[in-house]
Design a protein that fits this description.
The structure is a single chain. By secondary structure, this protein is α+β, with helices and mostly antiparallel strands. It has a single domain, classed as Gyrase A, domain 2 (2-Layer Sandwich), CATH 3.30.1360.40. The chain is built from four helices and six strands; from the N terminus they run H-E-E-H-E-E-H-E-E-H. Strand 3 and strand 4 form a beta hairpin. Helix 2 runs antiparallel to helix 3.
Length: 110
């Protein structure tokens, strides 16, 4: 993946980088964001479960956009997300919810 591709994808997500991380641009609510399945397929490289936590490895610079997309889905299993540059932590309520989320995300990877 090139920087141009990543920049284009961030633009499609209506995200821009601030000192506090990536945030949604206001005023763009009419344009739909790319499907979470597309983002997971393109950016996610590894998914590991540790009890009720999922550690997601992504390509550099894409963990925060993936986290924003996961948060936007408002899945009941997700308590919250924390993202760095290339690693995303998904916190779920219990082990069963983590297994469900892992299976859902794995199914999106081609």
């Amino acid at each position: 993946m090139t920087q141009a591709t990543l920049s284009r994808d961030l633009n499609e997500l209506r995200l821009f980088k601030t000192p506090d991380g990536y945030v949604l641009r206001s005023g763009d609510a009419t344009e739909p964001a790319p499907a979470i399945s597309r983002l997971v397929n393109e950016f996610v490289r590894d998914i590991r479960r540790a009890q009720n936590l999922l550690v997601i490895k992504t390509i550099p610079g894409s963990a925060q956009p993936v986290a924003v997309a996961i948060d936007a889905e408002a899945w009941s299993e997700v308590v919250g997300t924390v993202a760095g540059d290339d690693t995303l932590l998904i916190i779920t309520g219990n082990n069963k919810a983590a297994k469900t989320m892992q299976a859902r995300l794995e199914a999106m990877r081609v």
